[in-house]
Amino acid sequence: MRSWEYGMVDIHQVWPYAVMMLLAFAFASLPWFRSADLSGPQAGKRTDTLDGLRGFLALSVFAVHAIVHYDYLLTGVWKPSTAQFYNVAGVVSVCLFFMLTGFLFWNKLLKADGRPGWKALYIGRVFRLGPMYVVAVLAMICIVAYRTGFQWRVPPAQAIASALAWLALGIVPPPPTINGYTDTGTILAGVTWTLFFEWLFYFSLPLLAVFVRRRKHLAFTGAVVALCLLTIVAATWNGGFQPGVKPRPVLLLAVLAELILMLFSGMFVASLIHAGVGAKLKLERPLWAALALLALLLVFAAMLSTRNIGMLQLLALCPLTGVFFFILCSGNRLFGLLALPASRRLSSMSYSIYLSQGLAMVAVFAIPGVKAYALSGTLPFWIVNIACALLLIVSSFVTYRWVEEPGIRMGQRLSRRRETAPAALDPVASPT
Fold this sequence. Notes:
Blueprint: H1 15-28, H2 54-75, H3 84-111, H4 118-147, H5 156-166, H6 193-213, H7 217-235, H8 249-274, H9 277-281, H10 286-304, H11 311-329, H12 341-348, H13 350-365, H14 370-374, H15 378-420
Helix pairs in contact: 1-12, 1-15, 2-3, 2-12, 2-13, 3-6, 3-8, 3-10, 3-11, 4-13, 4-15, 7-8, 8-11, 10-11, 13-15
């Protein structure tokens, strides 16, 4: 696609991000979405604020992919854009998503003294993540079939095997293509890679639980955080990532350390709260909300200071984002923002928003004339993408109510059956 055929779209503008967020949250405030409400904020539940955070993160990831999609429409290549603000927003959102995962499941282990019902935990995960994932991947497979003319482009056994690998709930890394269609992953905006790392984390929990049972959880998580930071320093000592330059192999070690650090930062926060540190500091006060936002602002300042991602940026990301996250997990609602009904509704739908964003873009840009209009200028581009965001909220509401919620209830029923089964038939029914 030749960019000169269209008008100029300024992808570096920040104001559309704010407008999109405001309109999305105003839209989610409408009575239509009341059935997505969780129970109201509970004063005694110190981590209740997390129920209002996910929606911000999922929509931020969508905004990032809207920019990536712009470059894809022009070049046919799905890759990070030059729009630094959006790139940083995406990195910070993914970082917080991983921290959430680490926090929530480490917290489960802490509450169960390292002896949760493992079968119930994994059944719950399969039925929480699986149904919506399968629906999204089946939609992707249908689009691939349509775009390949409903003809075999590779041997049928190979295409079927690729499709089955994609349907494996992210437990195994899916192949890049189905039926030889090179843009398979872009249909879902490339978001499924995070699920593979989540499953690795879930499968590691029985080993990590040893440190909870031995009351070494705080020292263990703190040591891993420190080790990851030292690894990042060592790996980036002679320079970091430069745009357009193939990274040195040692930098991949820094990336791995950063991913582990994201999870363990959330776990470390859970251990701190379990030890009563958050309660002692009374972090729910408004002054701490200002500090949380300052920490987030400093993350953006550090990462926007240069296009090169080096030691400073990699070291700043998790500690500063972790400060923000720790304050929220300690009961701070960011001046009430995270307790708003719209925040909580969008957070309920966040998994569907995350998985469906690519499908929403495919659907909107398939409408005749939309692509040309969107690429005619900055304002048309964001009008189309904000409309896409609102469509995404509607579709995610539908899939949350009719796919995710039934899956969650099914997982809960199966888990209860496992818990109430006779011990002779279920060795996990009693602590081991």
